[in-house]
Amino acid sequence: MENTIVADIKTLKPFINGLFVESKTKNYTDAFNPSTGEVIARVPACTAEEADSAVEAAAKAFPAWSATPVLKRVEVLYRLRSMLIEEMDQLTYMVALENGKTWEEAKGDVLKAKEATEHAIAAPELLMGESLMQATPGFDTVLYREPVGVYVGIAPFNFPAMIPMGWMAPMCIACGNTMVIKASSATPQSALYIAEMYKRAGLPDGVLNVITCSRNEVNRCIVHKDVKGVSFVGSTGTGLHIYSAAAAAGKRVQALCEAKNHALVMEDAPIERTAAGIINSAYGCAGERCMALPVAVVHETIADELTAKLVEQAKNLKIGPAYDKETNLGPVISSAHKDSIVNWINKGIEEGAKLVLDGRNCTVPGFEKGFYLGPVIFDHVKPGMTVGDEEIFGPVLCIKRVNDFEEGLALMNQNPFANGSVIFTQSGYYAREFVHRTHGGMVGINVGIPVPVGMFPFSGHKNSFFGDLHCLGKDGVRFYTETKVVTSRWFDDAESRNKKVSTWDGTI
After folding, report:
1. Domain 262-445 in CATH: superfamily?
2. For residue 1, which of 19, 394, 471, 504 sits 20 to 30 Å off, Cα-Cα?
């Protein structure tokens, strides 16, 4: 496929109070098409005043929106869902263009946003409270779920549709809250476009706002007096800072952070299918996802055979531009991130890991300026090697060899991250033991990417998550609502009642 994408460089505008407004900032950053290395947009670092105005617009919209019956609120989401389906190809192309995901991965990004929207459409049932008549003699108790207020959502670059407009906005809005999304400056166009779709779907102005800004303005937003909660997805260092600062200011916080997911491959695992599952998980989205599978912990008896099969399958991946539907492995997000991944690969070599597949010198004809890396595989990665313990966020797979189930499980559980974990086996015993004893919050049995559907929470543990309530599922409903418990007692005033009855002469 020739390099046929020639895009005008857009100057983007934040979406505040239902309008795209011209930013007064003097600071803009470049957003790239990772497939070509070309600049496609100038992204404003919104001023403090503009960030404040987004929060103020959300705060002003909250009273009316929270008073809107939930059945009316989800009508907006019904219309949005239809629009997501109708404009699927346009959104898919937009995600592929600004992020570098392959066509099918970009489409999956949008489909997951649609799935989360569908889950939020169930809000009328999910928001139903609880009641107990005669809790004690003469007393009835009812629990209601009510909106909380303004939330700030801080989104990363790697899922520009799913995370801000799937994990964050739909349930927040359905529960009667208002929101300010801080989109990634690397991939803001999908979120801005979907925000405008919400307006077309009938969402009142101010309920959803999208800005791009620096960390100074983010810090300002998360402690703003009108903000009640913060949802964050990104690095552990940043997530811990946001969790600490926002919680200290009395905000609700959920911070979804880094991962180093491991798969335990037992000696009874079918080699061909297991290799295919690992390849798909390790190299999908160029490894730039927190549920990627960058480490395979392999039983020594099958390690040589599995490694050879992994190398064979990885070499067959077609590397190319994201919007070419034949591409299996697209570019990484930026030149700087590519350099970071290469530095990690060099570090792995220095640490003594065996590089069995080297993707550093990867070029795509016609796309020489794109940010491409081929698949990388390290074998004989030992405990303590940072390349096998810390998140690289790229197409790098590490193989750690173990002698049995217990050694493999212990090695996995030593890792400070616990987003997900996987076992490949045909043994029900080992599968059951693994489920009960792994530290991973999302567990796969012969499933390389154990991301649950939107009705269940995205439940990372340890240094992969800070907070009490995860996003999605019933956790998401609880995060975006607060409970009110009402206890009532009614007295039977017999004397007054009898007096009224005695004055009635039977005339109607």
Report:
1. Aldehyde Dehydrogenase; Chain A, domain 2 (3.40.309.10)
2. 394
Alpha carbon of 70 to those of 66, 67, 117, 125, 171: distances in Å? 9, 9, 14, 10, 11
**For residue range 224-272, what is the model confidence (pLDDT) as tens digits?**
999 999 999 999 999 999 999 999 999 999 999 999 999 999 999 999 9
Q: Considering the entire predicted model, what is its pTM?
A: 0.94
- Rounded CA-CA distance 426/267 in Å is 9
Termini Cα distance of the chain: 86
10-257+464-487 and 262-445 share one fold: no
C-alpha to C-alpha distance for 503 and 506, rounded to whole angstroms: 9
Domain boundaries, the chain: 10-257+464-487, 262-445
Strand (E) positions, 159-294? 178-182, 208-211, 227-233, 252-256, 262-265
Determine the distance from the C-alpha atom of residue 325 to the mean position of all C-alpha atoms in its chain, rounded to a whole number: 24
Sheet of strand 19-20: strand arrangement:
19-20, 15-16, 208-211, 178-182, 150-154, 227-233, 252-256, 465-467
* Alpha-carbon span 430 to 295, nearest angstrom: 19
Domain at 10-257+464-487: CATH code: 3.40.605.10
Alpha carbon distance 195, 359 (integer Å): 38
- Estimate the share of the chain in helix, then strand, then coil, as percent rounded to the nearest 5: 40, 20, 35
Characterize 52-72 residue by residue with b for buried, 16 or more Cβ atoms within 10 angstroms of its Cβ, and e for exposed.
bbbbbbbbbbbeebbeeebee
Distance in angstroms (rounded) separating the CA atoms of residues 261 and 295: 6
Rounded to whole angstroms, the Cα distance separating 407 from 384 reads 15
Query: Which tokens belong to 192?
Result: 């801005």
Do the beta carbons of residue 179 and residue 150 sit within 8 Å? yes
**Rounded CA separation 253/7 (Å):** 38
| 424: nearest Cα among 254, 284, 303 | 303
DSSP string, 419-462: SEEEEE-S-HHHHHHHHHH---SEEEES-SS-PPPTTS-B--EE
Q: Is 268 helix (H, G, I), strand (E, B) or coil?
A: coil
DSSP 141-193: EEEEEEE--EEEEE--SS-TTHIIIIIIHHHHHHTT-EEEEE--SSS-HHHHH
Cα–Cα distance measured from residue 173 to residue 197, given in angstroms and rounded to the nearest whole number = 14
Q: What does the buried/exposed string (b/e) look like for 295-325 if buried means 16 or more CB atoms within 10 Å of the residue's CB?
A: bbbbbeebbeebbebbbebbeebebbbbbbe
For range 474-494, the mean pLDDT = 93
Residues contacting 105, CB < 8 A, separation 6+: 96, 284, 285, 330
Catalytic residues: 290
* Confidence band of 336 (pLDDT split at 50, 70, 90): very high
180: left (phi over 0), alpha (psi -120 to 50) or beta: beta
